[in-house]
DNA sequence: GCGTATACGTCTACACTGTAGACCCATGGG
DNA sequence: CCCATGGGTCTACAGTGTAGACGTATACGC
C-alpha cells in the first residue's frame, strides 16, 4: 500500500498552493496527513526527495497531451509550452523548482523527447536538435519563472520593487519609450508572440541546413 | 561611516563563493565580520535585504562595459549577455537569485536601458521593444541559471540525476539522436550559437515592421 | 564643563527548521 | 510460537532568523 506516499505528496502540494513553498515544512505536512513528522521519513527519504516528488507530480501533468499526436510539430510545441506555463500559473511557487531540480524523472525525459521529435520533424539537422531543445526549454522555463517571480511586473508584489526613480537623464532608452512603459502588459499575448518568434527561429534554423 | 555595510556584503559574498549560498547564515556572516549576529541588523534590515544587497553587487559588475559605447548594437548586446553569464559562472549560487529577486536597483534599470537602446538602434518598432527586452533577458538569465543549476549536464553533479534508463521504445527522439546525445556539450559554443540565433530573431523582428 | 541623544554592539530568548536514534506495536510467515 | 518487518511515536540536537532589553562610547547643544 504505497498510497501513503501519494497522500504525503498531496498534502505538500496543497500546503504549497495555499500558503507558499516556505510553508511546506515536514511538521506542517505531517500534521496535514494526521501523523507525526518523523513518520514521513518512512515514505520519503528526505525533504529534498519530497520536493522532487512534487515536481514529479507537476511534470506528470505536463505530458497528457495525448490527443495532440496527430498535430503538426509547431502546434505540438505550442501545446507543450502552454501546458508548462499553465502549471506555473497554477503553482507559482513551483517555477524555480522546475529550474533548479535536474528533474530527470521519466516524465521529464518524455517531455524532452516530445521536443526532440518536434524539432526533427521541423527539419532541424540532428546535430543541432539537442541545442535547440535546450534553447526552447530554457526560454519557456525562464518565462514561466520570471512571470511567477514577478520579474515582469515591477512595482507589483514586493513593495521594494518600486523603481528608484533615478534621473531619466541616465536612461535614454527609458525616456524614449516612456509612452509604452508603465502601461499594463498582457502576458498571455506576450507569451504567444514570443513563442511565434521562437518558432520562426526554429524554422530559420531548419532552412539554414536542412 | 557606512563602510560596515560593505564589509558585511563582502563577507556574505565570500562565504557564498566558498561554501555555497546555504552557508550564508547571519551567524556565519557575523563571525566572519568579527561581530555578534545581531549587530548585522544595524546595517541590514533583513536577511532578504542582505541577499538583495549582494545581487546589487553583482549587478554593478554587469555594467562597466563603458568602453563599448561606440560599438554596434549587436556587439553591445553580446557583451552584456556574456558579462551576465560570466557572473553566474563565477558565482553559480547567484543565478537563481538574479531570477527571483525583482532586483530593481538602479544598476538593474541601467542594464535594462542598455538593452532598450540596443533594440531601438536595431530598428525595432518602439512598441515592441519592451517585449523583446524581456525575451532576451529571459533567455540569457535562463541559460545562466540552467547552466549554474546543472540542468544542462544531467548526470553530473547530483547523483539522483542519472537518467532512469527507461525503455527506449517510448522515446523515439532519444533513440534517433543517440549518436549526438551523451557526447559532451561545449556550453561556451552553445551560448554563442544561441545568441546568434536570438540576434537573428531580433533582426527579423526589425525587418517585419521597421 | 555637563547632560543627553544617537549609533553601534552584545546578550538572551523564542519559535522554528530538518532529522538522527531509540522505542513500540501490529501484522504475517516459518 | 517466535520473530521479522513495516509503520508510527517520542525525544533530542544542532541550526535558523530575529524581537527586545541592555550597555557603552562618541558627538552635540547648552
UniProtKB/TrEMBL annotation, chains A, B:
Occurrences of domain HTH tetR-type (ranges): 2-62
Gene Ontology molecular function, alphabetical: DNA-binding transcription factor activity; transcription cis-regulatory region binding
InterPro entries in alphabetical order: Homeodomain-like_sf, HTH-type_TetR-like_transc_reg, HTH_TetR, Repressor_TetR_C, Tet_transcr_reg_TetR-rel_C_sf
Matching Gene3D superfamilies: Homeodomain-like, Tetracycline Repressor, domain 2
An example Gene Ontology biological process: negative regulation of DNA-templated transcription
DNA-binding region(s), chain positions: 25-44
Protein name: TetR family transcriptional regulator
Organism: Planotetraspora mira
Amino acid at each position: 500500500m504505497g498510497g501513503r506516499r501519494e497522500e504525503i505528496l498531496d498534502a505538500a502540494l496543497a500546503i504549497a498552493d495555499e500558503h507558499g513553498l516556505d510553508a511546506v515544512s515536514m511538521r506542517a505536512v505531517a500534521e496535514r496527513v494526521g501523523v507525526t513528522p518523523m513518520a514521513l521519513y518512512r515514505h520519503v527519504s528526505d525533504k529534498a526527495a519530497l520536493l522532487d516528488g512534487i515536481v514529479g507530480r507537476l511534470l506528470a501533468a505536463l505530458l497528457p497531451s495525448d490527443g495532440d499526436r496527430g498535430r503538426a510539430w509547431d502546434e505540438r510545441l505550442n501545446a507543450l509550452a502552454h501546458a508548462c506555463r499553465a502549471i506555473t500559473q497554477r503553482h507559482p511557487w513551483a517555477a524555480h523548482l522546475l529550474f533548479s531540480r535536474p528533474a530527470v524523472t521519466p516524465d521529464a525525459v518524455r517531455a524532452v523527447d516530445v521536443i526532440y521529435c518536434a524539432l526533427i520533424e521541423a527539419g532541424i539537422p540532428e546535430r543541432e536538435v539537442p541545442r535547440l531543445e535546450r534553447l526552447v526549454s530554457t526560454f519557456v522555463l525562464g518565462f514561466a519563472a520570471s512571470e511567477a517571480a514577478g520579474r515582469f511586473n515591477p512595482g507589483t508584489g514586493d513593495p521594494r520593487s518600486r523603481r528608484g526613480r533615478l534621473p531619466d537623464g541616465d536612461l535614454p532608452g527609458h525616456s524614449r519609450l516612456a509612452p509604452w512603459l508603465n502601461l499594463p502588459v498582457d502576458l498571455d499575448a506576450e507569451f504567444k508572440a514570443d513563442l511565434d518568434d521562437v518558432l520562426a527561429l526554429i524554422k530559420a534554423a531548419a532552412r539554414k541546413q536542412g
